[in-house]
Amino acid sequence: MRGLTRRLVAVATLAAVGATVAATPAQATGKSYVKVGYFTQWGIYGRDFQLSKVQSSGAAARLTHLNYAFGPVTAEGVCASADAWADWQTPFDDAHSVDGVGDVAGQPIAGNLNQLAELKKKNPQLRVLISLGGWTGSAYFSDAALTDASRKKLVSSCVDLWIKGNLPGLPEGVAAGIFDGVDLDWEWPGSEGNAGNIVRPEDKRNFTLLTAEFRAQLDKLSRSTKRKYDLTAFLPAAPAKIEAGFEGDKIFKYLDFATVQGYDFHGTWESRTNQQSALFVPRGAPDNPDFSVDVAINAWIKAGAPRRELVLGLPYYSQGWTGVSGGGDGLFQPATGPAPGVFAAGVEDYKTVKTLPGFTLHRDLRAGHAWLFDGTTFWTYDDPAQMLQKALYIRAKGLGGAMMWSLDGDDGNASLTRAISAGLR
């Protein structure tokens, strides 16, 4: 790890002053990286973030995959829309439409799904996946995955709704061809997630069986449509959650790749400032064992995951504490609570944090993380320089690419996405 750390520090130092990442042998071999951005269904409301901004900012041209979040699994064990108005009903005017032409009454389909279709027309390289579950939509995954019959029921409903495009109340197949596959965001099989989630010890085996059923039904559909469908999954960083819920040596038989949570290692549920997305555990960290990107990736490799099919998740938001005491640069210091945020206490978008006045930027290039501190308030911080350093880690570690949660946190120039794309050419 020392050699890898030295290389990351060297390149990150250049990145911090605006230099370009040097070419590496991985580029010379023609290896391609996936670049996955999450678009949140609800972002069109309070956040005022439409798919037109993914296009106009230049982000879409730099992605290989866009995951549309989320489609829940219901108590009846089937796929459904969490918000049909956002998904296929709400009209977009000229200014908010990807192609610049507003929706009109009577067209076959509107909403985000129609905008996804427009985005794909402008970006033929882009593959769009429906992301199932998420933090608040995973309550019934365990029930739906419990038996062979329940798995077949769930998967067939998901394929019918999202892949075949049979939306309720609309003509058959109206949304066919919009989604190129499925992303499984079961948070988490075999261990605690959101309060009220159903959890069983059998989830570990059943997750594998569920991926197998998705793969089988998607491949069957491929034989008739002559189209390839992707199957991916979102995976936890904590070694205990990996052990409790995933057969790492088996699930990749069915997955095209999987994204690993590279953030939320620490946050304002704790009363002490810390890093949320460091590459390596920082010197002086108060927790042992501790979380980091390298800890998570190594745990998955140990569990049997192929390196090339692991995609590192990167945060487009910060975790923040206020009432920080203890002096110094603010790291690892006690705090009275979460810092105020626009949409939630203790959490703020990169685009907002980067413009906060009165803060000093601190970097730990060896550990691969940064933070902002004004003497009272502390924000974790992933800026373009940190993204370049993480891109180098992905390359040096032999991973498959990067995932971004979520695109609405970036600035209007897609600065974070551009940095990741530059580092993973």
TrEMBL record:
| Gene3D superfamilies tied to this protein | 3.10.50.10, Glycosidases (3.20.20.80)
Please report the stretch or stretches of sequence annotated as the GH18 domain: 33-425
Q: Which InterPro entries match?
A: Chitinase_II/V-like_cat (IPR011583), Chitinase_insertion_sf (IPR029070), GH (IPR017853), Glyco_hydro18_cat (IPR001223), Glyco_hydro_18_chit_AS (IPR001579), Glycosyl_Hydrlase_18 (IPR050314)
What does the record give as the reaction this protein catalyses?
Random endo-hydrolysis of N-acetyl-beta-D-glucosaminide (1->4)-beta-linkages in chitin and chitodextrins
* The enzyme's E.C. designation: 3.2.1.14
Does this entry carry the keyword Transmembrane helix? no
Name the PROSITE patterns for this protein: GH18_1 (PS01095), GH18_2 (PS51910)
Keyword annotations: Carbohydrate metabolism, Chitin degradation, Glycosidase, Hydrolase, Polysaccharide degradation, Signal
According to its UniProt record, this protein's enzyme class is hydrolase
- Signal peptide location: 1-28
Hydrolase as UniProt keyword: yes
State the PANTHER family in the record: CHITINASE, CHITINASE 12-RELATED
> What family name appears in the similarity comment?
Belongs to the glycosyl hydrolase 18 family.
> Which protein is depicted?
chitinase
